[in-house]
Amino acid sequence: MVATTFHSRISACFLVCLLAVLSFAAMPAVSKMPEVVGVRTGVNGEATRFVLDLTEAVDYEVFTLDNPDRVVVDLSDVAWSLPAESHQLNKGVIDGFRYGTYEAGTSRIVLEVNGPVTVRDAFLLEPASGFGWRFVLDLEPGVVVPVAEADPVEPSPVIKTVTWDGPPVPGDKPEPTKPIIVLDPGHGGDDPGAIGISGTYEKDIALTAARELKDKLEATGLYYVVLTRDTDIFLRLGERVELARAADADLFISIHADSIADPSVRGAGVYTLSETASDAEAEALAQKENKSDLIAGVDFINVAYDPVTTNILIDLAQRETTNASSEFAHILTDELTDTVKMRGNAHRFAGFRVLKAPDVPSVLLEMGYMSNVEEERNMLDQAFRGRLLTAVVDAVGVYFSDHPR
Q: What is the mean pLDDT of the chain?
């Protein structure tokens, strides 16, 4: 009787395990996000072929932009597994390309081309002959026309309405009493920003620094802090300004890392807004940063920016904001000078589009030059960033001691 019961239990256990295995096998496989694992180009006569190697099929849309000439490919969300040097790809009509997350659920590729092009074809190839899924794009020099026989695709990216509900307010207080600081990590998504000596992307360093600065500021218990982006996504310059205003920000700090042709140039710098640049280098930097929308494939000429973001310095109502921005820039420059190497004439100014919130004191912080070996290494070092960002926290404290909310 004991033996029979024992064997019955063994049989029951075996049956349960078998059913579990069969049930698991019958479960549908969890689908993975398609991954881009390779990229290549080829030239045949005047035609240039651009190919992406994929792990799965994707949805896509192709359109062209001019001034400057670009071809934009929007894909359903994908993961990127490409080497850092992929952006240097150039062959035929293609001078280079950028890629990354554009908006939630969408990835974007921007092909920089050396003149007007015709998109002759765009299609997916199923796995065959040892290859996996492939996205193929065929380009030829010439007048831009729609893809194949499809209806023309208008280059009109959706303009998001950015809103923010404000920081949590304890009790029944009608508004927060702590100053609200908006931190803006520069670039993002398919706009990598400057690229360092070792291939480091400015967008990644800026986001890491912004997150760390947010933690340091919040640790004081004195401020509410908002990030314009907390992931690797693309934001238009106008959207960053809109976010600062929607948050009712008391201070806006845009965080960047510069690059220049001369690898010996070093030093952090602080910039504020002016329609007249302080010097040629500041003017060149502003022009480069203001091209962020173009790099990401957005034709900002056709985007309806809020009129208050243009010619704000001629409006007398903006003088207070301009003066406050300059005041914080001077404080920040002084604090940083005691901590890190600074450029000569460390506080500069130029027409930075991202600093054009008319009612929010705003500065742009360049943490250093990624084109300099030592400074790129410093910015990748958490201890160095900690010292630099602590100086920023100290400057914020000095500023708000005279500007309580």
A: 78
